[in-house]
């Protein structure tokens, strides 16, 4: 299936049980060149909020990733972007169909560093604000030479992070070190799991 057919067909289809959310960061240079980074996947959601994103997206076929990058660059060109923007897709992992969720041009202070990870794998963890403790929200960005290395670093950083309430810390640790997430399960498939009791952080 070529990019044009996949893109146009998927706009009319709803997200399925195998939905994945993928961000493609695009930079349009002053000379007209357009670069697209690798796919960042919104891997773990809670109450409609993205808690964990990672790059490259686990188990994403190279051909599909390149298709999404090509479409993202085409959108940036068609909209006359200049600078950094993000194109968000919903991908049905079973059918291979995808649809555009949003395309946003970022301010000059956007996450240019997220275009390409500084190492082979990157993990971004969103820490929610806590008004009772006077703690603002934060983003934890961890790099690793492998996905496993990045997961281990993120696990240790969250374990050692001061000020996290126990339920939030346990939730994040459960997800990061769970067999399902470590195997590369993401998106709607991961969200359907209700029993995390097999993981040591649940105790």
From TrEMBL:
Domain of life: Bacteria
Carbamoyl phosphate synthase ATP-binding domain mapped to chain residues: 47-103
Listed InterPro entries: CPAse_ATP-bd (IPR005479)
Pfam families attached to this UniProt entry: CPSase_L_D2
Classification via Gene3D superfamilies: ATP-grasp fold, B domain
GO MF: ATP binding
Protein name per Swiss-Prot or TrEMBL: Acetyl/propionyl-CoA carboxylase, alpha subunit
Organism: Bordetella trematum
